[in-house]
Amino acid sequence: DTLQQVPQKPILADACPSDSILHNGECQPAILGAQTMDNIRQNTTITLEEARASAQEHEGFPWTFLPECYSNEKQTEPVCVFSDQDFAGGRGIFLVTTTPLAYEMLKKPAFSQPEALSRMNQHSNPPFEEHDFPGKGRGIVANKTLHRGDQIFASTPLVISNPLSYNLVDSERLRLGHRGVDTLPPDTQKLFWGLLDHFKGDPVEDRINTNAFDITINKVQQYAVMPEIAMMNHDCRPNAAYFWDEDTLSHYVHATQTIYPGEEITITYINNERKREARMKNLKTNWGFDCSCSSCAAHPIFAAESDARIQAIENIAEALNDWTSSSTATPEMAETMLSLYAQERLEASMGVAYKHAAEVYSSFGDRYTAIKYAQLALEMLHLDRGFNDNDIKFMLAMAKDPEQSWSWKKRVGHKRFEDSSCGHAH
Ligand SMILES: C[S@@+](CC[C@H](N)C(=O)[O-])C[C@H]1O[C@@H](n2cnc3c(N)ncnc32)[C@H](O)[C@@H]1O
């Protein structure tokens, strides 16, 4: 209730003339009529129904409601809540962001070609069921065998929020969040309110903080909440991986290994090629929970063995990344690295190890082993990084023709050491 009494600050004031809107840093013809723009300028907080009516008055206006915005000395570019109830076949979405970025998002196929989302949000016959796990809350469990590469979800976010909103005063930022949730279609609001509120603060912001994933749109980091992936718990040795696709504004989750019925399907919230203490600290600091996954909970002796393998992976990576003439890198090192990844149950992150292997074999002129590992890298990097990753493009080229790769025969003639352990001399 108190939130609704917060007066709205002037927005877009002096930014552009009344018949235009700030877009891409420039004043462009307003899709809004001058009268509506005046309403915003005059500091009026209008009801949702008024905001809907105002939006409908303007043919072709892309949002279901007239956006509500706030700015201040610290955040001169207004941050607004933009909502589209028709997004993704009626699931709806709201964006808490600046006008230029919101209009950049509108240009993406997700908004401009609704058929681009025909494969998304199809959850009628899921390969999993929800289950309660003591100490972790809800999670999802496979109800059929999933194979590496099988899709588990492809979901659109309910909200995409720009970190710039933290420049607003708390009451205004929170008001935008609440307004956004109120603009979602009723069934989607239920999905939002069903999310976990781990920190017990403001109910909207808390649900966003507990469940949001970092994503990037036009190189700008944002937070996005997908209610399906939000049911997945963290595991330092997960059996599934996710990626964000900017074109469809969608989050994909795939199995990265065979998952049998009854097994929990997990993802990682962090970089897992770190030692246990660092992983646990990251989860506590950034996600606010004490990790109880099997590798966090392992006996100290086993945890120390695991940490030693992580250290060995790090040492080998350093040696393989050395492209100088004094490099000690050998294909055997890459084989040991692959074995360490498998032993650590880091299948979900194995793409990077396969890439190392492809490169080192290429550097010694071994065409077919380079191709073999480039193909393996491609599959795993796709599942973990999505469609547009640079390493993927590089591995595609390598799989086609290693001889054209920059690494081809780079190390031919280098001394090949017998010792294939993590033997990088410091
Ligand atoms: C995105 S939600 C995951 C679904 C959540 N369990 C639920 O009931 O809605 C993230 C929250 O789940 C819990 N969680 C996830 N993975 C965990 C783990 N490995 N150990 C302990 N708690 C975990 C934490 O409370 C965390 O804040």
From TrEMBL:
PROSITE patterns: SET. Keywords: Signal. The keyword ATP-binding does not apply. Coiled coil: none annotated. This is SET domain-containing protein. Residues 126-270 form the SET domain. CDD domains: SET_SMYD (cd20071). It comes from the Eukaryota.
